[in-house]
C-alpha cells in the first residue's frame, strides 16, 4: 500500500482551510490554501553561471554615416523624377519582364510608364464614382494585388497611385479562401480602411470565385471593390489635366506589410520624404548612374526589391530586369544569364539564388559576370550568407566575377536599408571576418573564438551606416539602454530614410519608431529619435556593421539567447542532402513548463528511408547540443511540401508553430527529448515520517480533529411492517411472491427497438427457476453447495437461472459471455473464472453452448475440459419435490467475480444474510416497493449492477425495466426513450452508457425534442461504479439533457468495492458536494464530487494504511467499511487466511474501544463533515473517493492517479478517442487511441508530452498511438491498464506509432 498523508501534514491544514473558505464565500488570495509550486520550479531553472562572460567595454557612442552629398539637380519628389524621364527620355527602357522560360517578354519604357501611370491616376480620381461622390480621395489607401511575375502592371499601378496621391498597399495574391497568412492580411486591410483593390485582368480571372462568378469573400477580409488596371480599361486624361506633384513631405507615400514573429501582419507607413531620401542614400552608397542595368531577383513589392528595382531605378533612369521567383524554380541560372546577356552592372539577390545558381552551374560554361560592379546580397545578415558568398565567388571568379563586387547588406521593413557594403576598389584588401564564440553570443557578449572552430560563428560585415544616417546598439529587452562596445544588442538607426509608423497602431509605433536611447543611469542620450530595426548585431572595428540575428528569431532558453537562423545553419551543416530539403527548416520556441523549448521542423524528401531520417535527426540533435550547448525539445520531419510557405517560397514560421501547437502539422517522423532539456523540474519529494499510534487520543479526536468516520442510518431503528422481513432467504421471498401476487410483473426486457421481448411475473419466474433447479439435479447430478457458472447475455434467463441455483442449493457464479467476434480476448477470462470457481457445471443458451465447443474457441482455450454444459433453452416442465433451504443465513448464496482495473481476477463470497441486508439497504435508500418501476441499463454480471438486475426486484417487488447496454450501440435513443415512455422516476446506468449518450447524442438534442422525449419525470439517475465519480462527464450529461427536462440534481453516483459492493448510493440531498483536493505538493488540484449517500447500516472510517490508525476529518486515507452486507471473504484456490483477515476482518490499531471488525476497500478517500443536517438533525458526513490504492503510480516521490493524467491528455486533441497510462521501469507510458486519420498520429506526441509536463510535472517516457478499441475496457467502463501494460511489453498492441522520448 502507498503511504498515506500523515495527520499533521500540510495537506490537512490546506484542505481544512479550503473547506473553511468554502463556508465563507468571499475569495481569499490563493496563497492561503494552495502553495503554488512555481516558486520551487523557478528555483529549478539553472541559475546564471558565475563564470559566464560579461561585457567589459565602455558604453558605445552612436556611429554616423558619411554626409548625404548635395546634388544640384536632385528632384524634389520621386514623382518629379518620373515626370522628367517620362517626358524627356521617353524611349529609354525602364523595366523588362520575363516569361516563364526566362526570356524577355515585354519592356516598359519611361514614356509608357509615365503615360500609363497618368491614365491610371486620372481614372482613379475621376472615373470610379460620380462627380459629386468620387470613390477615392487623396490620402485613401488602396490594395495592390499583382502576381510576382507581373512587375510591369505593378509598377504602373504603384506610380499611378503616387500620382493620384492615394496610398498603395502592396499585398500577395490570395490563392485560396483560407490562405495561410490570408486572415492576417485581411486584418491589415481592415485596419488600413481599404475598400478598393487594384489588379490585372489575368490575375482577376485566376482568383477563386463563387457559383455565380463573384470573387469569394476571403476569410477575415473586408468587402473589396476590384478594379482592373489594364490600359484598355483606363481613360485618357484631358489635355488640361495635370497630376498634383508637391515637394516630398512627411505625408504617407505607401505602406509596406510585414509579418511579426507571432504571425500578425502590420503595415509600415513610409512618407514621401523618407522614400525620396532613402533613394538618395542608396544612390550615393551604390554609386548608381544613369542608364545602368540592374537584374532584380527579389520580390519587387517590398524591401530591397522595391527600393532598388522600382524607386532608385526611376530616380537614376536605370533599367531593371525583373526575374520572377517562378522562373528561378524552373531555371535557377536565369539571373546569371540575364546579367551576362544585358551586361548588367548590378544584381540584387538572396543567398538562395547564389546557392541555386551554383547547383545549376554545370549547364552554362560560357556566362560572364565581369560586368557586375555590385552583387548586392540582401540577406547578408544570415549566418549562412558567408559560406554562400565564398562558395559562389570561388565558382564564378573564373567567369569574371570580381571579389570586391560582393556587397552584403542588411534591411528591415521599419528601418529600411540599415547598412550596405560599398562597391570595393579593385585590388584593395577585402574586409575581415568576425569569428565569434557561440557561447559568448548566447550571453549577448562578443568574444573572438580562437580555439574551437565548431562552436564559432563566422560573420561578414554588411558595410557601413547609410549616408546621412546614424546608428546605435541598444539592449534588446527593457528600456533602450545603450550597449557596451563588446555587447550584442538591437541595431537602431536614426535618419529621415526609415518608416514613420505602424499604420493604426500608436502604442507599438512609439516603442519602435520613436526610441530615445538612454545611458546606464537611465537618462536620455541626445534628443534624436531612433528606429528599432529588429536586427541584432554590433559595430565592429572601422565602424563596420555586423548582424548576428533577428529579434524575431531570438530564442530565450533558460536565460540564454539563441538565434533561430544559427540553429538552422547547424542543421544544414549536418550532411542532409538525402534526408531533408535545404531551404525548408523551421526553428521556433514554444513555452512549456516555465521556459522556452526549441522545436525544429524540417521537410523530409519522399525517398528518404526511416533509417536515414533517424540518423540525420540524431546527428542534428548532437550537433546543436555541442555547438550551441542547448537541448532540442522536439525535432519533427514532415512530408515534402506540407509546411506553410510564404509567398516567395520561404517557410512561414508562425503558421508552422501554430500548426504544431494545435496538432495539425502531421509529422512523419518525430523525436522528443524532454529528459535532456527540461532541467527545471522540482526535486523529487522525500517521504514524510507518518504519525504513529502515539498521536494524542482525546475521546474521538486525533490531535485536535474529529476522527474521519461516517455512517448511514441505523438499521435497528427503522420500523418496517413489511412481510418480507419474516423471510431470511431470497428464495423464500420469491416463493411467497409467487403465491401472494402471482401475476405481478417483476421484469421486462427490451430490445434495441424499445419493444418488450420478454417479461417475467412472480409466478413465471418461480416456475422457470423450478425447471432449472430440476435439470441441475437430473442432468447435472449436482449436490447442494456445488458452484455453477451462469453464462447468459443480459436478460431474464440469467435471473431465472440464478434462482434455479438457489432452489437447488447450488452456488451461482454469473459470468459475462465471450464475444463471438473476439474470442481470443474474451474467452480466456471465462475459462479462468470457470477454473478458479471450481464450477461443477455451466448453465447457458444453445447458441453459447455451440460457441464454447467451436473450432474458434479451441484456438483460444482448451475446450475438451469444460465441466458439464447444460443449455436451458427447452426444459421439461417438472416440479421440484422440495426446494432447498440453507441451514443458516451465513451459508454462501453466490460468488461475485470481477476483473479489477489492474487486471486481477477477484471473487468474493456473498452469504444469504449479506444478500438480504444488501437488498434491504437498497430498498430503504431508494424507497422501493411493488408499485414502483425502475429502468436499469447496466451489465448484470458483478457488483451492484448484478444486485440491481437480479436481486432487488424479487426482494422489494418493484418492476425492473431491463435494457442491455449493448443494445444502445444500435439505438442511442433507447435508454432515454424508455425512461420517457414509462415515465421512470429512478434509473440506473454505467459510465459507459452515460458516455455513449453524451458523445453520441450531443448534437441530437433537437431530434430528442421532436421525438417528444422529456426527462422531467426522472428523480434520480444513478451511475453505478467502483471508482471516483467522473465529475466532468456527469456535468456534461446534465448540461446536455437539461434542455429536455433533466433536473440538474438528478444525476448521482454510487460507490462500491470488492469487499462491499454498495457503500454509497444516490444523493437525494439538496446538492452533492464538490471539493478541490490538493494532495501534498501536487501540482494540480482535483475536482472531486461526493460519492453518494452512505447506505443504511453501513459505517466507514478513514485509516492510515501503514499505521492502521484512524485519521482526522478531511485527511486522505484508505476507506474501511463495516456493514451487514459486506462480503464474507475472497474466494480463492488457495484460501490464504492472512489476506482474508487483513482485508475482511481488520481492527484499527488504536482508538476503537468496540474493537469493530472492518473490511478494507483498497480505495483512498476522505470524509468531510458538511454544513447540511441529515434528517436526524445530525450534520451530514460526505464521503469522497479519490481512487484505488493499487492503481496509483509512484513517480518522483509523489502519488498520481492514472485517471488525472488521462483526463489531461484526453483534452488536448479532437482525435484522441481514449487514453490510458501505466509505468514501466520508472518511465511513464501514455497510450492514446487515435480516431482521426493516421497522419495525425505524430501530432499527438508533443501535445501529450507538453500537457503532462505542464499539468503534472512529469516527463512522459513513451507515447504509444494505437487504433480505437485497443485499450481494454471492462463491462463497467473501467480501463484495464495492467492488461494494456502486459500487451505493450509483449509487443502485441500493433501500434500506429511508438515514440520513445529521449
Automatic annotation (TrEMBL):
Broad class of where this protein is predominantly found: other
Q: Which GO terms describe its biological process?
A: nervous system development
Q: Which residues form a coiled coil?
A: none
Q: Does the keyword Acetylation apply?
A: no
Domain annotation AMP-binding enzyme C-terminal: ranges: 1191-1293
Q: Where in the cell is it found?
A: Cell projection, Neuron projection
Task: Give the encoding gene's name.
Answer: DIP2B
- Alphabetically list the UniProt keywords: Cell projection, Neurogenesis
Q: Which residues form the AMP-dependent synthetase/ligase domain?
A: 103-502, 734-1131
Region of interest: Disordered:
43-62
- Entry keyword annotation includes Ribonucleoprotein: no
Q: Name one GO cellular component term.
A: neuron projection
> What is the name of this protein?
Disco interacting B
Recorded source organism is: Saimiri boliviensis boliviensis
Similarity field: Belongs to the DIP2 family.
PANTHER family, A to Z: DISCO-INTERACTING PROTEIN 2 DIP2 -RELATED, DISCO-INTERACTING PROTEIN 2 HOMOLOG B
